[in-house]
Amino acid sequence: MNMIVAVDKNWAIGYKNDLLVRIPADQRFFRNETINKAVIMGRKTLESFPGGKPLKQRLNVVITSNPNYQVKDAVVVHSIEEALEAVKDFKSEDIYVIGGASIYEQMLPLCDVAHVTKIDYSYMADTYFPNLDQRPDWVMTNDSEEQTYHDLIYTFCRYERRKN
Question: Where are the domains of the chain?
């Protein structure tokens, strides 16, 4: 299973239930990676999308503790186990965990690959992704040339769980 995320210098991912920044190339990368695949997210992540609507051309699995929560064109579940059951017909490499922080934290042990867009800037933030550089079981296996968007510098990085 995969994770996909954009982080700043401090591994921050959000502020007040919104992305820190929108970089068109990063959004294209996200779309290209996840199109026609399964995405697993928390309720707040779904609600942060335009109109609070699920992503098109993907199986959207939304984890929430609210037993009455419903959303059109998404599968609503109430646990990690139910989310995994909802995506069981997909190959592991076609499943992407897309946030937020609590879902990333809970799903990290189940994932083998993390696609991390690293932004060379520190934002005001209240939500963070686990710092994979400080985790001995994760290693960066690939990174792109530096990219720029206005005055921001960023790289696309691929992390993989170390094989024992």
Answer: 2-161
pTM, rounded to two decimals:
0.95
With beta carbons less than 8 A apart as the criterion, state whether 41 and 103 touch.
yes
State the number of CA atoms in the 13 A half-sphere of 43 facing the CB. Answer: 13
Q: What is the mean pLDDT of each run of 10 residues along the chain (164 residues)?
A: 98 94 97 98 94 96 96 97 98 97 97 98 97 97 96 98 86
> Domain 2-161 carries which CATH code?
3.40.430.10
What is the pLDDT, as a whole number, of residue 22? 95
